[in-house]
Amino acid sequence: MYGIQISHLTQSELLACHHANILFCVSTDSCQLASNRFDFPVFNLDLPTLAQHCMVEVWHSNAPILRRQWHSDSGIIEYSYTPELLFASIRLPLEENTFEDNITQQYLNIFSLLQQENFPVILRMWNYFPAINHIDNNTERYQRFCSGRYRAYTHHLEKFDHLLPAATAIGTYSKNVHIYFIATKTPGINIENPRQISAYQYPKKYGIHSPSFARATYKQWTSQQAHLFLSGTASIVGHKSLHLGECQAQLQETITNIKAILNLDHLQQQGIPVAQFKEFSLSIMKVYLRAPEYLPVVKKILQTQADWEGKIMYLEGDICRQELIVEIEGIWHIHLKK
Ligand code: 3EB
Q: Average pLDDT, stretch 142-150?
């Protein structure tokens, strides 16, 4: 067992570190990290960076890394894998009229690839696509996305609610759909939020097909190392959006939601071995804001969260409900006692 490390580096730190151990990097267009310069995949998110410093999210492993492509009529999946982790990415132009079916097809392609490579568990998934709140034929694009994704899961699995990955779905300003994810050979542990109804059980008024994701997933890699992957989290309590139009109150509610998930008693109830935790620390956090004007107040409040300082990437992106201003996701690193 090798484990993985996920870190938040400046561009010069990235240039100085050992490249053979890098699985992939996540950056943004505004950092202008030329992907052809490196022999590992670099994902530039189609979202403007809001803070001055360009930080890069770097995934490392000491394991041998293999790189491949999976080709089909509906596109190419680029992927890399180690003995325990597969990482893959799809980028293709959004076709407005067939968007829903295209999402189903891409997810089915993903399931086929994972079956072929024998990485049956998707642990964490990121979905970025243009104009997430755009309405065509009376249906918001995010709801069409949820329907397309739901159909693929239904096709693939009979009962999937409890097998869903942690996820993010954010609206961009580009023309492309960009999906990336990590998959593993053995399951992690799924975590829900005691303050929120599970997204897969949301009432139909938010869309005919509910959003298919878990609030968080926990994965132990070695006897001493684990990660907690927190889904995009917003100002939703039960199933309702709270504090409409109030950025500061939405942020506070979001922080309360995050702390409810990370609460050690709650984690223990969800089956996580918290008694073995030696250290629990944030590796990287992404904060999505609907508009740049919200940055100063959000930054000021998040700076008061001591443990989060210096590990936050601020991005301008649209949240999947029109009334939501801020959404936060994160990855926590856990060091376990021997
Ligand atoms: C929410 O709690 C906010 O559809 O994959 C957050 C994370 C949200 C992931 C998804 C949606 C998704 O419902 C929205």
A: 98
Taking the C-alpha atoms of residue 56 and residue 313, their distance in angstroms, rounded to an integer, is 9
- Size of the chain in residues: 338
**CATH number of the domain that residue 79 is part of:** 3.30.1330.40
Tell me which residue range forms the domain holding 233.
4-336
If one counts the domains in the chain, the total is 1
Q: What is the mean pLDDT of the segment spanning 87-108? A: 96
Q: Is the pLDDT of residue 154 over 70?
A: yes
Task: Write out pLDDT tens, residues 293-309.
Answer: 999 999 999 999 988 98
**Under a CB-based contact definition with an 8 Å cutoff, are residues 218 and 156 in contact?**
no
290 phi, psi to nearest 5 deg: -65, -30
CB 213 within 8 A of CB 233: no
Report whether residue 167 contacts ligand 1, using a CB cutoff of 6 Å.
yes
For tokens 């939703």, what's the residue?
Answer: 236
Q: What is the spatial distance between Cα 47 and Cα 130, in angstroms, rounded to a whole number?
A: 10
Half-sphere exposure for 310 (CA within 13 Å, toward CB): 7
Distance 320 CA to ligand 1 centre (A): 7
Residue 169 Cα to ligand 1 middle (Å): 6
C-beta of 236 in contact with ligand 1 (< 6 A): yes
What percent of the chain stands above pLDDT 90?
84
To 10 degrees, what angle do helices 247-262 and 295-302 make? 30
Amino acid identity at 209: H
H-only helix segments in the chain: 11-16, 99-117, 141-156, 247-262, 264-269, 295-302
- How many Cα atoms sit within 13 Å of 281 on the Cβ side? 15
Residue 178 parent element (H or E) = strand 176-184
Statement: residue 35 has pLDDT above 70: no
Mutate to test the pocket of ligand 1, among 100, 129, 145, 320 (most ligand atoms within 8 A of CB): 320
Which residue, among 166, 149, 141, 76, has the nearest Cα to 107 in the 3D structure? 149
